[in-house]
Design a protein that fits this description.
Helix content of chain A: over 70%
Strand order of the largest sheet of chain A: 2-3-1-4
Largest sheet of chain B: 6 strands, mixed
Structural class of chain A: alpha+beta
CATH class of chain B: Alpha Beta
Shape of chain A: elongated
CATH topology of chain B: Rossmann fold
Order of helices and strands of chain A: HHEHEHHEHEHHHHH
Strand content of chain B: 25-35%
Mean pLDDT of chain A: 84
Strand order of the largest sheet of chain B: 6-7-8-3-9-10
Oligomer: heterodimer
Order of helices and strands of chain B: EEEHEEHEHHHEHEHEE
Number of strands of chain A: 4
Chain lengths: 308, 226
């Protein structure tokens, strides 16, 4: 009996959908825009995080030591820094290693090799590179290194330039998120409003049936179910369209974004690949948002226009 | 058995649609409820189908106090009570068969049950040959018979007929009343709200007269007197 009732409710929902086909299409269209906005916000978040992460990885705090500083001392400073909670990694580059690395980068340049040969001492200073767990911690780490304890041995502490870039990027991502959120909310409200009217009209066009259903003792679910299911059908329809738009668009823009933001990297982040591998999450997000909005709006319309 | 005990109903604070009504209607009875427009006939029937709640008093059907009936219980009650109206309330885009079947679908009847039951009901109301017609092609009397057939789809214990002959000529009206008598003889309690004096007088059944929401007379084999 439940199965048959369910089948009848679905049949009625499809009838509603077809009776107001253009309204259903308009509702689906606004829902598609809302879903695309939500997806855009989602991907902007993911992508922003990736860009930030890649820049953070490139940026570190570097400390250059004075020429005569002993290697043991440098190692001791490195060990001391490593005990800090906000430090992720400390890399020591001795002056020999710096020279080796310099030489290997200029093997094809006879002029440089020649001038290096003329020098008696290694001109390159020892340094350490510190990677903080988060960019905002660099300032505190630098403060420690600029204290009187270290100043006699340290030539320079360098981090400021990179921190500005990071701050700007964080601010940019935050404002993209804020604007995106506002636009998404506006479209979500529009979607609710239009969906609400669709359900209202469907209720109106079924008023005779509803009247008779009540008369002959139809259960509440039998009367209200078709309108809720109709809105869910419209929203799932919107998910299909928005997915069909989203993936080709991501595929088109992914290489450009990759080139622009991850130019020098060996394994750059590809937003389309991410969307493909995380398809369940992407579609789940859309279904969740669409069905959620649909149920909210149809429930409001039913409460307003389908009182017992 | 239907029992009204001191039932009152007010739509506005200053006027009473029903005023202290006490009635006992045994199972299988045929009661005509008469009175002028606004006397409270429709309100009496609406309280029985839980379309309206009494402001005071109790209404009990076969031991079931429906006075404070819960919302979710209303459909269950309505499947035990068939209702027929003056304006038929048929679905114009459905055939006679489908109109009757619709009531059964709503109640969750399986297609086989619908296929078997509907022709029987149509036979009872003498509309077997009109099963595939649309309501627009039917006369007023035929439309009312479809409405009665639909009301009978659940085999209700009680049939409420609110001015069922209001839109019909004398001949068709009598036709409908004959049908109500037939249904009553099959065991269904019938409450007929009407202001058609010819019908009430010809029926020679119990007559409850309402005036200003009060029962002013209740007589077995009564006549229409206002």
């Amino acid at each position: 009996m439940v199965g048959i009732s369910l089948a009848r409710i679905f049949k009625a929902a499809l009838q509603n959908f077809w009776r107001n086909i253009w309204l259903s299409v308009a509702t689906a269209a606004i829902m598609v825009i809302t879903l695309l906005m939500i997806s855009f916000l989602y991907f902007a978040n993911i992508f922003g995080g990736q860009v930030l992460h890649s820049i953070q990885e490139k940026v570190d705090l570097s400390v250059t030591f004075k020429e005569d500083v002993q290697e043991q001392y440098i190692q001791a400073v490195a060990n001391e820094l490593e005990t800090r909670q906000d430090v992720e990694k400390v890399t020591v580059i001795t002056s020999d290693q710096a020279l080796e690395s310099f030489k290997s980068r200029h093997t094809d340049d006879p002029l440089i090799e020649e001038s290096l040969g003329e020098l008696e001492n290694n001109p390159l200073p020892a340094s350490i590179f510190i990677l903080a767990t988060e960019p905002r911690f660099y300032e505190n780490i630098a403060k420690q290194l600029e204290s009187d304890k270290y100043t006699p041995f340290i030539d320079s502490v360098n981090y400021e330039g990179s921190s500005t870039v990071i701050d700007r990027l964080i601010a940019l991502i935050a404002s993209v998120k804020n604007v995106g959120t506002v636009i998404t909310i506006v479209f979500a409200l529009l979607a609710v409003l239009i969906m609400f009217n669709t359900v209202r009209l469907a209720i109106y066009s079924f008023r005779e049936e509803i009247d008779i259903m009540r008369l002959v003792g139809a259960s509440r679910w039998f009367i209200q179910g078709p309108f809720i299911i109709e809105s869910v059908i419209v929203s799932l329809f919107a998910v299909i369209i928005s997915t069909a738009i989203l993936y080709p668009v991501l595929n088109t823009i992914a290489p450009h974004l990759q080139r622009f933001f991850f130019d020098a990297q060996s394994s750059p982040f590809n937003i389309y690949d991410y969307a493909v591998t995380h398809w369940a999450r992407v579609i789940g997000l859309q279904v969740g948002a669409a069905v959620g909005l649909a149920i909210i709006s149809s429930m409001i319309a039913i409460r307003r226009y389908l009182r017992d | 058995m239907i029992t009204f005990t001191k039932v009152s109903k007010s739509y506005t604070p200053n006027s009473a649609a029903l005023d202290d009504v006490t009635l006992n209607i045994p199972t299988g009875d045929f009661v005509s409820v008469v009175g002028q427009s606004g006397a409270g006939k429709s309100t009496l029937l609406k309280i029985l189908s839980a379309e309206e709640r009494p402001t005071a008093g109790n209404v009990v059907i076969d031991g079931w106090d429906i006075t404070r009936i819960k919302k979710w219980q209303v459909p269950h009650l309505r499947r035990q009570i068939g209702v027929v109206f003056q304006d038929f309330k048929l679905l114009p885009k459905r055939t006679v068969f489908e109109n009757v079947a619709f009531a059964m679908e709503v109640g969750g009847a399986i297609p086989k049950e619908i296929k078997n039951t509907v022709p029987h009901i149509l036979k009872l109301v003498n509309l077997v040959n009109k099963a595939d017609e649309y309501p627009t092609k039917l006369s007023g009397g035929e439309k009312q018979r479809v409405a009665i057939a639909r009301a009978l789809a659940y085999k209700p214990q009680i049939l409420l007929a609110d001015e069922p002959t209001g839109n019909l000529d004398a001949l068709h009206s009598w036709d409908i009343v004959q049908l109500l008598i037939k249904i009553n003889k099959l065991g269904t309690t019938v409450l007929l709200a009407t202001h058609n004096d010819d019908i009430v007088n010809a029926l020679k059944k119990r007559v409850v007269t309402l005036n200003g929401g009060k029962v002013v007379s209740d007589q077995q084999g009564g006549t229409y007197k206002l």
